Amino acid sequence: MMELRIDASGKILGRLATEVAKLLMGKSSAAFDYSKPGEMRVVVTHTDKIRVTGKKPWQKLYRHHTGFHGGLKETRYVDLFAKDSRQVLEKAVAGMLPKNRLRVVRMKHLVMHRGEDK
């Protein structure tokens, strides 16, 4: 399995996420096939230096429902980024991958670090 390292410092969240999603799917490979996971392992470093533009840090919301009445939970980008910057990139990339069984396999090929490699 090939490994590609990406330095996320100063990059825009959405543009970085599309680049990572394409690599995880294997679209850069000549042997690309929708029914197979990509042959690429993507290592993203410096996720704590990812940027977003405009007022998104304060206005962007991440929502999920617990399944109980009134159980809609909202988290702002600023709060999630302060807690763990890797979750922001993980949610962005997962949202750009096809919603099928291979999504879990492809997401396992994504490795993220807040700072330098460990």
Automatic annotation (TrEMBL):
GO biological process, one term: translation
UniProt keywords, alphabetically: Ribonucleoprotein, Ribosomal protein
Keyword Ribosomal protein: yes
A GO cellular-component term linked to this record: ribonucleoprotein complex
Gene3D superfamilies, per the entry: Ribosomal protein L13 (3.90.1180.10)
GO molecular function: mRNA binding; structural constituent of ribosome
CDD domains the record matches: Ribosomal_L13 (cd00392)
Keyword Ribosomal protein (UniProt): yes
Subunit structure: Part of the 50S ribosomal subunit.
PANTHER family: LARGE RIBOSOMAL SUBUNIT PROTEIN UL13M, RIBOSOMAL PROTEIN L13
NCBIfam families to which the protein is assigned, alphabetical: rplM_bact (TIGR01066)
HAMAP family to which the protein is assigned, alphabetical: Ribosomal_uL13
Function: This protein is one of the early assembly proteins of the 50S ribosomal subunit, although it is not seen to bind rRNA by itself. It is important during the early stages of 50S assembly.
Family to which this protein belongs: Belongs to the universal ribosomal protein uL13 family.
Protein name (Swiss-Prot/TrEMBL): Large ribosomal subunit protein uL13
Organism phylogeny: Bacteria, Candidatus Sungiibacteriota
Gene responsible for this protein: rplM
